[in-house]
Specification:
Layout: H1 2-22, E1 27-33, H2 45-54, E2 62-65, E3 72-75, E4 79-81, E5 87-92, H3 94-101, E6 106-111, H4 112-117, H5 126-129, E7 133-137, H6 143-152, E8 157-161, E9 179-182, E10 200-205, E11 214-222, E12 229-236, E13 241-246, E14 249-252, E15 258-267, E16 277-285, E17 290-300
Parallel strand pairs: 7-8, 8-9, 10-17
Antiparallel strand pairs: 1-5, 1-6, 2-3, 4-5, 11-15, 12-14, 12-16, 13-15, 16-17
Length: 304
């Protein structure tokens, strides 16, 4: 009886051990690599990456469908990056991530949810991004590369948002699609008394009736200064659109006073087929201070 009890305990331990191995959770990580450290015995970086992954504890190749949808193939990684940075994406356990991080050729490892929020190459879901203006966290890759990642995923505009540590500094970037940059404070939820509202974005649906080609947006501003002050607006309209503001001037007589204004955006011309979005801005000024609200206009369902 005692022997049977010992065998039962041993069998239970073995089953629990196997259960731990097979239920260990994996998730997708992006691994940045120094390709200049590739040993000469490897013909290319893909072979080097595969060998490195297979050396990890309990690493298993993935079975992926071919791009044509016919047949399957074994792969050691989800994607290989060769343009903006060097590296690969793979499904890894936490233990495997720790092993990789100790290798001299690994520059950094980024969890895929962060990769999507930072618009890293290959991290965006095309079904979710297509035809949209995408907000990307700054960091993890060059700012212009984020715009390229959005463009390749079918996005029509990009907003680069400073995150903690980046502060209020902004830089001009040569994006391939309309792009804006906002500061760390500009990306946070705004207080009711904050005059700096988020960017105004409108969509002209080319498949709808003409009444949709004239869109009105209302904003409310709160005076945060002491004493009276008058602000006048300077409009920089997006190309192909007419923008008017009513009233064009707001006069405040005391701190905390609220004023509302209406921004009317009217389509004037249909852009070329390869053009989906244009940007502009509203600048309110009292002669000393300026408050800018970015404007983004998107044309949807353009004729082909």
């Amino acid at each position: 009886m005692g022997t049977l009890w010992v065998w039962a305990l041993a069998l239970t331990a073995i089953l629990l051990s196997f259960g731990h191995v097979y239920t260990e959770i994996t998730q997708t990580f992006i691994v940045r690599v120094r390709n200049d450290l590739k040993p000469s015995q490897f013909l290319d970086v893909e072979e080097w990456y595969s060998t490195t992954l297979r050396s990890l504890t309990s690493y298993k190749s993935m079975t992926l469908k071919s791009e044509s949808g016919k047949g399957e193939k074994q792969r050691d990684f989800v994607h290989v990056y060769k343009t903006v940075f060097n590296g690969f994406a793979a499904r890894l356990t936490n233990q495997q991530v720790e092993e990789l991080s100790n290798l001299p050729q690994v520059l950094g490892i980024i969890g895929f949810p962060f990769g999507a929020s930072a618009c890293l190459p290959g991290s965006l879901d095309k079904k979710l991004v297509r035809g949209k203006i995408v907000v990307c966290d700054r960091g993890g890759s060059p700012r212009a590369a984020k715009g390229l990642a959005v463009k390749e995923a079918g996005g029509v505009g990009v907003i680069i948002e400073n995150v903690d540590g980046e502060g209020e500094g902004l830089s001009a970037d040569p994006h391939l699609i309309p792009g804006l940059a906002i500061t760390e404070s500009g990306g946070k939820p705004h207080k009711p008394w904050d005059i700096n509202y988020p960017a105004i974005s409108v969509v002209f649906d080319m498949s709808s009736r003409p009444s949709k080609y004239n869109i009105a947006v209302m904003r409310t501003a709160t005076h945060v200064g002491n004493g009276s002050s008058s602000y006048s607006v300077v409009v920089t309209p997006p190309r192909g659109a007419k923008v008017t503001v009513d009233p064009p001037k707001m006069t405040f007589t005391e701190k905390g006073q609220k004023k509302s204004y209406v921004v009317r955006i009217q389509m004037q011309s249909v852009p070329p087929v390869n053009l989906y979005a244009e940007s502009g801005k509203l600048t309110w000024t009292d002669g000393k201070h300026q408050v800018t609200s970015p404007l983004m206009v998107v044309w949807k369902d353009l004729p082909t």
